Amino acid sequence: MTTGDGLWQQIFTFDDYGELLVLVRNSLIAGAALGLIGGLVGVFVIRRDLPFAVHGISELSFAGASAALLLGTNIVAGSIAGSLIAAGTIGVFGSRARDGNSVIGTLMPFGLGLGVLFLALYKGRAANKFGILTGQIVAVDTPQTSWLLGTSAVVLVALAVMWRPLTFASADPEVAEARGVPVRALSFAFMVVLGLAVALSVQIVGALLVLTLVVTPAAAATRITVSPVLLPVLSVVFATVSIEGGILLALGGSIPISPYVTTISFAIYVVCRFAGSYRIRRRGARKTVSEPG
Amino acid sequence: MISLRDAALSYGERVVWSGLDLDVRPGEFLAVLGPNGSGKTSLVRALLGQRQLSAGTLTVLGRTPRKGSRHIGYIPQQTALPVHATLRARDLVRLGIDGHVFGPRPRTRTVRSRVNEALQSVGAAPYADVPVGLLSGGERQRVRIGQALATDPRILLCDEPLLSLDPHHQRAVTELVDARRRSHGTAVVFVTHEINPVLGLADRVLYLARGGHRVGTPGEVLTSAALSQLYGTQVDVVRVRDRIMVVGAPDEVVDPAHHPELPDGARS
Q1: 8 Å CB contact of A171 and B50
Q2: Helices A75-92 and A142-171: crossing angle, nearest 10°?
Q3: What is the tally of structural domains in chain A?
Q4: How far apart are CA A120 and CA B52, in angstroms?
Q5: Residue ranges of the domains in chain B?
Q6: CB-CB: which of B50, B70, B74 is closest to A175?
Q7: Are B31 and B206 in contact (CB under 8 A)?
Q8: Which stretches are transmembrane (chain A) (predicted)?
Q9: Residues in chain B with pLDDT < 70?
Q10: What is the pTM of this model?
């Protein structure tokens, strides 16, 4: 029982909670921005079938961050640089699933290898190394927060401008092209936006678990709605609840933030999945009735 | 509406078609027939302004075609929708109206009523709120036609819209297109490799093949003599009641299969 209690205390302790809360104020702000960005970008990650690309980009983002750590420069800038290189490469060599997956599969281990190399050369605190991979909440200091918020603003504006044509190009590329939508340019532009969003997520949940913020919330939302308004709203809500909930819970324990975030995110998905399969069954029944012959 | 003069289109060395003269009048139904690789899709791309002619002139509504004209409604094959499209039928139609516009757009009542009208006009209103991924091929194609008609186009470009539809739904699609050109004088360019679904509707036929092309009424073009000449081999056109069977025509243009015009991922 005592070991069980000890384990439990590592995961949840809420002594001095109020004082700790002040320490993570920056993280909570960054988390809110991240929930917004991750939730919105995720909608298109699902629509364009890019979850694997997200994973690939995050590994290169990790390489960039660890290089920055080694060189003693800005980690956010490093992870953004790594992300953009990966996103650009995937964008050029085929962001569509068919050709893209092999490019991503090739890029991903290389990025991870580079990251491990940089971390092995780094002589600083071990917690810094671990943080890039699995996330940490106290890592976010004030200058970093400004970086995060600035990048989030860029992503947000870019998404607002291209939301509709990007929806068209993702859902219906042929007709979109016929109507004059620059389908290829948008595909590349979205990869850049995705790269930025991934780099932001790496700061909080770590490179290994970016999918939990950029894919899971949107995937959960698509299970229960297809409304073009409700879908992004729910996706943002799910992402924000996961990250902020994760930060608040992680405060009470001595383990990294990521298991809390991933667990909340996953739980939301499971609930949506069950709710959604019920809905689709109902839809299917209705549809066959309406079909005449 | 559409005017081609001595038009040619080629990919590098390979000439797809050349010396093409064609005028399409308002309300006319032009069926574009021919085997795979004969340049049917290239013609569609030229009309959409996505591909330049290598020789000759093309005007659409009196001017050189440019990309994204609202006067052209485009209906692709029904298989072209990505499975991950998390959209309802009405969203797809709406994208046809303002999906190409950058920047946030408020949802206005005018747009909504246009979407509803378009869905109603093609009989797709009952499943307006069903995700497109759950629709059958025939239902989806109705929605597609609604999407193309939502901008009130003067030309309808249909690129193999009957592909992998059963005869019942093929008829529904062709009837909708036919009704539109009769009620609004919309010119129809209907690309298909199946002759029979459009046989009773087409005013004229453009038949593309390796050995050249023929333009004329179905009675003029769809004859054993004309097609044998086009294909450069003995082809028999057999009429059984109101259907036509083309016997002996090669399925594909005999040429190294090379499709530089296809964007990656757009079509398999």
Answers
A1: no
A2: 20
A3: 1
A4: 55
A5: 2-247
A6: B74
A7: yes
A8: 28-46, 67-90, 102-122, 147-166, 186-216, 228-251, 257-276
A9: 79-85, 251-268
A10: 0.86
Per CATH, the homologous superfamily of domain B2-247 is P-loop containing nucleotide triphosphate hydrolases (3.40.50.300)
Answer for the pair A218, A228: CB distance below 8 angstroms, yes or no.
no
Question: Interface pTM (ipTM) of the complex?
Answer: 0.85
Q: What distances in angstroms separate CA A110 from CA A58, A62, A75, A81, B179, one per listed residue?
A: 12, 11, 19, 15, 58
Q: Tell which of B87, B97, B112, B171 to mutate to test the A interface (max A CBs under 10 Å).
A: B87
Tell me the pLDDT tens digit for each residue of A212-258.
899 999 999 998 888 889 999 999 999 999 999 988 888 877 777 88
Q: What pLDDT is recorded for position B191? A: 94
Q: What is the CATH number of the domain that holds A86?
A: 1.10.3470.10
Is B237:B221 a contact under the CB 8 Å cutoff?
no
Q: CA geometry: angle at A69 spanning A63 and A72, to 5°?
A: 140
Q: Is the CB of B100 less than 8 angstroms away from the CB of A168?
A: yes
Provide, as residue numbers in chain B, all residues whose Cβ is less than 8 Å from the Cβ of A177.
Answer: 48, 50, 263, 266
Provide the domain limits for residue A155.
16-210
Residue A284 DSSP symbol: H
Contact B127 A181 (CB under 8 A): no
Spell out the alpha helix ranges (H) of A12-137: 17-23, 25-47, 51-71, 75-92, 97-121, 126-134
pLDDT at B263: 44
What is the tens place of the pLDDT at every residue in B229-246? 888 888 888 888 878 888
Output the CA–CA distances (angstroms, integers) from residue B40 to B17, B37, B171, B193, B210, in the order listed. Answer: 10, 7, 21, 9, 12
Q: How would residue A3 be classed by pLDDT, with cut points 50, 70 and 90?
A: low
Helices (H), A172-257: 173-178, 183-205, 211-214, 216-224, 230-251
Helix (H/G/I), strand (E/B), else coil: A180: coil
Q: Return d(Cα B30, Cα B188) in angstroms, integer.
A: 6
CA distance B151 to chain A (A): 11
Q: Can you tell me the distance from the alpha carbon of A183 to that of A204, in angstroms, rounded to the nearest whole number?
A: 32
* Coil vs helix vs strand at A97: helix
Question: Which residues of chain B are within 8 Å of residue A179 when distances are taken between CB atoms?
Answer: 68, 70, 74, 96, 99-100
